[in-house]
Amino acid sequence: MKAVTDANSTAPGAANPVDVVLPCLDEAEALPWVLRRIPPGWRAIVVDNGSSDGSPGLARSLGATVVTERRRGFGAACHTGLRAASADIVCFCDCDASLDPGLLVPFVRQVADGEADLVLGRRRPQGHGAWPAHARAGNLALARMLRHRTGLRLRDLGPMRAARREPLLALGLTDRRSGYPLQMVVRAADAGWRVAERDVPYLPRSGKSKVTGTWRGTWQTVRDMRRVLSEPPLEVLR
Fold first, then answer.
1. What pTM was estimated for this model as a whole?
2. What domains can you pick out in the chain, each with its CATH number?
3. Is 214 buried (19+), middle (13-18) or exposed (0-12) by CB count in 10 A?
4. What mean pLDDT comes out for the span 220-224?
5. At a CB cut-off of 8 Å and minimum separation 6, what does 95 contact?
6. Which Gene3D superfamilies is this protein grouped with (predicted)?
7. For residue 57, which of 41, 46, 42 has the smallest C-alpha distance?
8. Of 69, 110, 115, 76, whose CA–CA distance to 91 is shortest?
9. Between 19 and which of 50, 85, 158, 175 could a Cys-Cys bridge form, CB atoms 3.0 to 4.6 Å apart?
10. pLDDT digit string (tens) for 145-157?
11. Distance (Å, rounded) from C-alpha 195 to C-alpha 27?
12. pLDDT at 4
């Protein structure tokens, strides 16, 4: 099913220095905080994934480009945002106020200066409840599996990241669920990309997590990601 883009969106090819993709499912409480922190001159692309709390209208009123992805799934929302982007460099950030998109500026600088091809945010929890124990355990297990699969020594597989749009599209990402962030890293490694990490404060999110708020949600995510790690390397990417 095709995504629906807001009529006021910037047309493809427009001169946006950076686009920030913000997957959104019922994040009306967090949107004002998040959108106020988008760096000046950058475009926020809020990808609504079936909200029922007025998130799309609120995001639009706050100046964001709004895209609708009717197929549920974190990866579906992220990839629709990537396809809707037109800037050379695209960032991704959660829309729940757990991460400050203003901190993406040095990420973009590293990519723009050719120091890295993909920059990831290493989450450093701030305050009680910012990162539950079960979510940390799942992340640690995945980081170890990723190291075994690719050789990358990453300490986090968080959602905050930056890379160039066209090379990202060329990775041919297919996961449309929780495995999308990991598949991006795995295929980037297969393609010989330089992957870097930067520490970012991780705040208690607004509202309940749709993914890692429970043990069940966490391990469903781990299951999705284990499937990604079992994929053979795509030599065509080299």
1. 0.85
2. 4-232 (3.90.550.10)
3. middle
4. 71
5. 22, 23, 24, 27, 30, 31, 34, 46
6. Spore Coat Polysaccharide Biosynthesis Protein SpsA, Chain A (3.90.550.10)
7. 46
8. 110
9. 85
10. 888 899 999 988 8
11. 30
12. 46
Q: Check: CB of residue 16 under 8 Å from CB of residue 42.
A: yes
Give the strand pairing for 18-24 and 43-48.
Answer: parallel
In the block, residue with structure tokens 């001159």: 41
CB 20 within 8 A of CB 50: no
End-to-end, the C-alpha distance of the chain in Å comes to: 31
d(CA 8, CA 60): 9
Degrees to nearest 5, angle at CA 210 with 90 and 97: 55
**Token digits of residue 208:** 């309940």
pLDDT interval class at 120 (50, 70, 90): very high
- The set of residues, in sequence order, having a beta carbon less than 8 Å from that of 78 and lying 6+ positions away, is 21, 23, 47, 92, 180, 181
Residue among 38, 37, 59 at smallest CA distance from 48: 59
| Type of residue at 81 | G
